[in-house]
Amino acid sequence: MVASQVAKLYDTLQVKSNIIINKQLKKENYKDCLLCASLTTFYSPFNIQTKGFELLKNISSQTTNQKDSLINDIVQVYALYKPMIDKNNDRLENEVMKNLNDLKEYPWFVDLSQGKFNDEMIIYFTESEDYRKRVALHNMLASNNHLAIIKNYKIQATEILRRIKIRLSNETLE
Prior knowledge:
Number of helices: 6
Structural class: mainly alpha
Number of strands: 0
């Protein structure tokens, strides 16, 4: 997925997470947010494409006498954001797997996997402080951390693309 798709997805999940965190989901209205039952088990990794970045790193290190601010800025953005995004992907994947492993211990887990809701499950997702805390943690990792970094990366990457287009159009004119 591209950054804007991941950002849109996590923005939606943040809205749904707030329904649980703010105790707005009840037994009477749980059908209004069926997605709310899977908030702690959802994760969409975002991976930066690095093929061009690796080539630029080599060019940058080979041309240390000629400082090209655009190349240096590209290398800096990737060097900054790639490790942070990779780390957040790992954190989210680990948290999701932990949540899935914990949920599978409930007698209604198979029903959940088939989208069949029963009273015990509905009570867990609408009233459980355990689930509320899990949603809050997942929201912190996914929306408050991962999403923020992805959005900042997208801003930086968009600016770099703008500068590349300017550079290419100037070279075409010469």
